[in-house]
Structures are given as structure tokens and as C-alpha cells.
Write a structure and sequence with these properties.
The chain has helices at about 5-20, 35-40, 60-65, 70-80, 95-100, 120-130, and strands at about 25-30, 55-60, 90, 105-110. By secondary structure, it is an alpha/beta fold. It has one domain: 3-Layer(aba) Sandwich (Rossmann fold). About 40% of the residues lie in helices and about 10% in strands. It has six helices and four strands, in the order H-E-H-E-H-H-E-H-E-H. The N and C termini lie far apart (about 35 Å).
Length: about 130
């Protein structure tokens, strides 16, 4: 298994969200990976897929849709069972965050180290949860 860029700082971030009782999903482009096991085999050793709701795990190779195409975001919204305005999408990719916003989702562009802004995310999360 490999260690992906920025992964160490994402684990506490995901745990913080889970502690706040927010439902977590993942949207990942996995083209070229033929199976769920192939996807799992390349994840970092400490990556915990169990923090995400099964129905909100969207691997592009499994559903035939890929970011930044709006179809994968529409699929995520539909699977969540809640309005887009109550969904928060976080990514390092500006185009993806803009597509999510276009569909009515809240979105945040988060940066990896050395420019990481995950440390300030708790304050943003606090404000976000007051509004939903």
C-alpha cells in the first residue's frame, strides 16, 4: 500500500467530522482499477474506509461516472437523500468545488501541506453545522 500526499492530515479531519455526527462520503476517480480490491490495495495503510457510509462511497470505476463531471456529484446528492444545499463537498481541486457549487452543494477547497488549511477547518465546520 502507498502513502498518498496529504493523507496524514486528512485522518484527524475525517474523525472530527464523524465526531460531529456528520455523514461522510467519498467521491474518487478510480479509472483503470478493475475491482474494489484493486482500489483498496493502493490506499494508504492507515486509510479507514469504515468512516464513510457504504452508500456514499462513489468510486468512478464502479459507477461509470468521474469527477469533475456533474453526474457523479448528482449521484452523490441522490444517494445522500438530502437536498444539495445540505451537502458539503471538500476537495483540493478548484474545478470540482465549482461543479459542486453549481449543483447547489456547499463546497470548500482544502489545501494539502505545506499550505494546508485543515487546521482552520474546525471553525468553519462549527459555523456550517449551525446553519444546517
Amino acid at each position: 500500500m502507498r502513502q498518498g500526499p496529504g493523507c496524514p492530515e486528512r485522518r484527524p479531519f475525517c474523525l472530527l467530522l464523524k465526531q460531529r455526527r456528520l455523514r461522510l462520503g467519498i467521491i474518487s476517480n478510480t479509472s483503470g482499477l478493475p475491482s474494489r480490491q484493486a482500489i483498496l490495495d493502493i490506499l494508504p495503510v492507515d486509510f479507514d474506509l469504515s468512516v464513510f457510509e457504504d452508500s456514499l462511497i462513489l468510486f468512478s470505476s464502479e459507477i461509470g461516472k468521474e469527477k469533475p463531471d456533474k453526474a457523479i456529484f448528482e449521484e452523490a446528492i441522490a444517494r445522500s437523500g438530502i437536498p444539495a444545499r445540505d451537502c458539503l463537498y471538500c476537495s483540493e481541486n478548484l474545478v470540482e468545488t465549482l461543479v459542486a457549487q453549481h449543483l447547489g452543494m456547499l463546497s470548500m477547497r482544502l489545501q494539502s501541506a505545506p499550505n494546508s488549511d485543515l487546521t482552520s477547518f474546525e471553525a468553519v465546520l462549527e459555523e456550517f453545522t449551525r446553519h444546517i
